[in-house]
């Protein structure tokens, strides 16, 4: 029996990814000097942005979670229908076009490459060609973790489908490599694999698509294991680009493998793409430690927490975890 159980790992990954997104949301475009001036020497320690809608007050997430939810909903339907890769990608393409035209709860600073890909898909460009050839932002890796949960027992498919899905919006090899690593890493975290094996497999997955991405991940892992200060690492890894984002995720997984709060806050307290870094860290560490590792106040304060929780519970248990 897997401990924590697979269901709790899926809830941990989905909810912590969204919590990280919401924690980082108010500081996505802020420098560390700005963050410390606003929140004190420890930086951000809790949600700092709330919206009220229909009488409910919540911490809003961003486009990262909107698109990841679209991927997860599509993958669950696709798996239930027994679809092949092409049908699944067409299903995700329809979900992305719908999101671009009418994002649930309003637009949240979506990336240009995501929007350009969606416009191409809406014009009828085939999914494998819709993403820009040099689109290498973090817009596809931030929504790649669901492949590792839905295909937790099939690493080859998790990787191949995550890579394919990047092509809808991001066709640069650095984005493909980052998606491969994120899907494989999430799957191994959700399997309860040892940390070292998980990091090895993430780096190997990136290597299959772009060796320079693997090199950046190796350096980030060494920095985490060698005690290099987070400020130093995140000053270099701003994570607007996919290779920096996955290297930042490796740093946080290696530094805080069993402390979800620490991983989330370290991801949010960064001068770069704070919401995306924290969402990647949340998915990986959340899949390792399960939902019990997520502070209740963050889970309860999150936008649409109940809906995301219910969605996570729909992910089918792999046979060996039952
Ligand atoms: Mg975002």
Write up what this structure looks like:
The protein is an all-alpha fold and 322 residues long. The chain has one domain: Orthogonal Bundle (ADP-ribosylglycohydrolase fold), CATH 1.10.4080. It contains 17 helices and two strands. β1 and β2 form a beta hairpin. The longest helix has 19 residues. The protein is globular and about 50 Å long. The chain starts with 5 loop residues before the first helix and ends in a 9-residue tail after the last helix. The mean pLDDT is 96. Magnesium ion binds next to α3 and α15.
Total count of helical runs of at least 4 residues:
17
What general form does the structure show?
Answer: globular
Low-confidence stretches: none
Question: Which ligands occur here?
Answer: magnesium ion
CATH architecture: Orthogonal Bundle
Give the neighbour order of strands across the main sheet: 1-2
SSE topology:
Elements: H1 6-24, H2 32-39, E1 51-53, E2 56-58, H3 63-80, H4 85-101, H5 112-122, H6 127-130, H7 145-150, H8 155-166, H9 173-191, H10 195-207, H11 211-225, H12 230-236, H13 242-255, H14 260-268, H15 274-289, H16 296-301, H17 305-313
Antiparallel strand pairs: 1-2
The structure holds magnesium ion (MG).
Please summarize what this structure is.
The chain is mainly alpha-helical and 322 residues long. It contains 17 helices and two strands.
Task: Offer a few descriptive terms.
two-stranded antiparallel sheet; single chain; mainly alpha; globular; ADP-ribosylglycohydrolase fold
């Amino acid at each position: 029996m897997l401990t924590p159980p697979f269901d709790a790992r899926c809830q941990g990954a989905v909810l912590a990814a969204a919590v990280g997104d919401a924690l980082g949301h108010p500081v996505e475009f802020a420098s560390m000097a700005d963050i410390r001036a606003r929140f004190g020497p420890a930086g951000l320690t809790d949600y700092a942005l709330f919206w009220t809608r229909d009488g409910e007050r919540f911490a809003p997430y961003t486009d990262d979670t909107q698109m990841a939810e679209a991927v997860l909903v599509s993958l669950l339907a696709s798996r239930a229908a027994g679809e092949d890769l092409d049908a699944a990608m067409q299903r995700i393409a329809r979900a992305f076009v719908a999101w671009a035209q009418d994002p649930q709860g309003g637009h949240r600073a979506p990336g240009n490459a995501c929007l350009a890909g969606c416009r191409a898909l809406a014009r009828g460009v085939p999914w494998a060609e819709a993403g820009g050839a040099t689109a290498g932002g973090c817009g596809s890796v931030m929504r790649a973790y669901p492949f590792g949960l839905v295909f937790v027992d099939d690493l080859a498919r998790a990787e191949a489908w995550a890579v394919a899905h990047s092509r809808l919006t991001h066709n640069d090899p650095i984005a493909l490599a980052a998606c491969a690593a994120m899907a494989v890493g999430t799957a191994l975290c959700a399997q309860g694999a040892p940390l070292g094996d998980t990091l090895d497999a993430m780096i190997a997955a990136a290597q299959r698509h772009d060796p320079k991405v693997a090199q950046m991940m190796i350096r980030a892992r060494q920095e985490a294991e060698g005690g290099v200060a987070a400020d130093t690492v995140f000053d270099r890894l701003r994570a607007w680009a996919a290779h920096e984002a996955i290297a930042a995720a490796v740093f946080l997984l290696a530094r805080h493998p069993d402390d979800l709060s620490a991983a989330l806050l370290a991801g949010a307290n960064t001068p770069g793409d704070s919401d995306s870094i924290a969402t990647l860290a949340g998915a990986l560490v959340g899949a390792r430690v399960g939902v019990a590792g997520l502070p209740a106040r963050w889970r309860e304060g999150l936008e649409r927490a109940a809906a995301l929780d219910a969605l996570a519970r729909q992910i089918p248990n792999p046979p060996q975890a039952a």
